[in-house]
Amino acid sequence: MDSECIYLDYHATTPLDERVRSVMEPYFVEYFGNPASALHRYGWKAQAAVTTARRKVAELIGATDSQEIIFTSGATESVNTAIKGVALARGSGHIVTVKTEHSAVLDTCRWLEHRGFQVTYLDVDSEGFIDIAQLEHVLRPDTIVVSVMHANNEVGTIQNIAAVGALCRERGILFHTDATQAVGKVPFNVADSNVDLASFTAHKFYGPKGCGVLYVRKCMPRIHLEPLLHGGGHEFGLRSGTLNVPGIVGLAAALEIACHERIEETQRLSQLRQILWSALRQSYPNAVINGPDPEKQPNHRLPGNLNVSFPGIPAERLIGFLDSVAVSTVSACGSGEHKVSHVLEAMNVGRERAESAIRIGIGRFTTPDDITRVAEYFRVALDKAAPRVVSMS
Ligand SMILES: Cc1ncc(COP(=O)(O)O)c(C=O)c1O
């Protein structure tokens, strides 16, 4: 990693873990076969690796059958396949989702709206939680799918997806969850959560980019999805295209490591977050946290997530003084147009808070020393960026 710049943007992506890289390596050159080549040992070797990875992923997320795991190019493709797949297979109907979803879900829903589907976008409260009673209220006899993300990528809010799943199952409505930020970080079990469809991607849990999963529950009657890609009929007819074998092997290895280390890692990340948050508050007493209070509701927020507003300092201005830290902001003021996070807007935190919000993502390779240094970088940057009070004498 770049020693000049401390990486705290783990929600955007994570570096490949060396342990994962070493497992993937032989599949680039030595075992390069196409798993669809059924007539020779090159193909058999690749096919065996994919089968093992599929079984491992199924087991780690509580799927009952490895054929419920569909490998894709990432979460965006998985989400599109799930939501468009259901909608296009049904032909018409009503979809429910949430205002704070990732654009992969929101843009897919908007695309479907333009094609005659009706979509309800649920509100959230000031911490980003949906209201199950509101969800129950908006469900209709023609609702075909409900899509609620497991954990939010900006403010870390963890929704009660088991409650959403139970309600959908009771009504016979399909439930999709975008579990991209949750998998490997918080407990995720498709059976316990009554999930029918789930999307996630390897690069959020120290696996490779370009490889994701769509979980499709095997049930009777079968969940019918219209595939987005047509061709060789790979992935049980749901996703044609030659499989990314190194990526699939890496995804399974990364998921296994993340699940095995999850409990200790949760504790470690929560502690680092607490140290940083205390330091930021000390440097800027008006700083305010966006999303669930990590001290009061630790189980309802992603352990490595910190989203802080520094009212009075536009995020872009503060970032300008923070060139040794890689963090993120959605707030932007380009060509005179102010853009703020749709998540913070839906949470009704107010314009000033939304415009000054910075997302900090702490992860596997963040050390206590990094946190100390980042706290100091913020202290200096806040001092430079803070509006000066000019005394009139
Ligand atoms: C919650 C969520 N869903 C979907 C995605 C899309 O993932 P990808 O760009 O890897 O397809 C992301 C990526 O940031 C995400 O955070």
The largest sheet is: 7 strands, mixed
Output the radius of gyration. Answer: 22 Å
The CATH architecture category of the largest domain equals: 3-Layer(aba) Sandwich
- Strand fraction band? 5-15%
* DSSP E strands, number: 14
- Uncertain stretches: none
Task: Output the structural class.
Answer: alpha/beta
Domain count? 2
- What's the average pLDDT? 96
Shape: globular
Bound molecules: pyridoxal-5'-phosphate
Oligomer: single chain
CATH superfamily of the largest domain: Type I PLP-dependent aspartate aminotransferase-like (Major domain)
CATH class type of the largest domain: Alpha Beta
The number of helical elements comes to 11
Q: What is the CATH T-level topology of the largest domain? A: Aspartate Aminotransferase, domain 2
What's this model, at a glance?
The chain is an alpha/beta fold and 393 residues long.
What would your notes on this structure say?
The protein is an alpha/beta fold. It folds into two domains: 6-11 and 262-384, Aspartate Aminotransferase, domain 1 (Alpha-Beta Complex), CATH 3.90.1150; 18-256, Type I PLP-dependent aspartate aminotransferase-like (Major domain) (Aspartate Aminotransferase, domain 2, 3-Layer(aba) Sandwich). Helices cover 37% and strands 14% of the residues. Helix 3 (75-90) runs parallel beside helix 4. It is globular and about 80 Å long. The mean pLDDT is 96. The structure holds pyridoxal-5'-phosphate.
